[in-house]
Design brief:
This protein is of the alpha+beta class. Helices cover 41% and strands 13% of the residues. The chain is elongated, with a radius of gyration of 16 Å. The chain starts with 12 loop residues before the first helix and ends with a helix. 12% of the residues are buried.
Length: 105
C-alpha cells in the first residue's frame, strides 16, 4: 500500500528540464502530457508504486493491519497484518532511480 504521504514526489523545474531534453519517445510523450496538463509542478504519485515493484528498497514497507472505515478513510488498527504499507520514501533516491530509467540515455 502506497499512501499519499509516501508518494509526494514533486517533479521540479530542474528534473523536468532534464527529462524534456532527452528526446526519447517516452520523454517526448511526457513533455506533451506535461504541457496538456497545464500546471507547473506535477506530483508523481503512481510512479513510486511502479518503482517499488522494480526496486522495493525505494519505499520500505511495514506490515500493518489496515481497515477502510464507513466514510472511506483508511485506518491503521490493532490486529494481524493484512497489508504491507510504505510510510516513508526518499524523494532523492526515487528520482535518482526514475530519471536514470525514464531518461533512457
Amino acid at each position: 500500500m502506497m499512501p499519499l504521504d509516501s508518494t509526494q514526489l514533486k517533479l521540479d523545474e530542474v528534473k523536468r528540464a532534464f527529462l524534456f531534453s532527452q528526446g526519447t519517445p517516452i520523454t517526448d510523450a511526457l513533455t506533451v502530457l506535461y504541457h496538456l496538463w497545464g500546471q507547473e509542478t506535477p506530483t508523481l504519485f503512481d510512479p513510486m508504486t511502479i518503482a517499488y515493484a522494480v526496486n522495493p528498497a525505494l519505499c520500505p514497507v511495514q506490515p500493518m493491519h489496515i481497515r477502510v472505515d464507513e466514510k472511506g478513510f483508511t485506518r491503521a488498527e490493532p490486529g494481524p497484518p493484512n497489508a504491507d504499507v510504505c510510510q516513508d520514501s526518499s524523494s532523492e533516491e526515487f528520482f535518482r532511480f526514475y530519471l536514470k530509467r525514464v531518461g533512457g540515455r
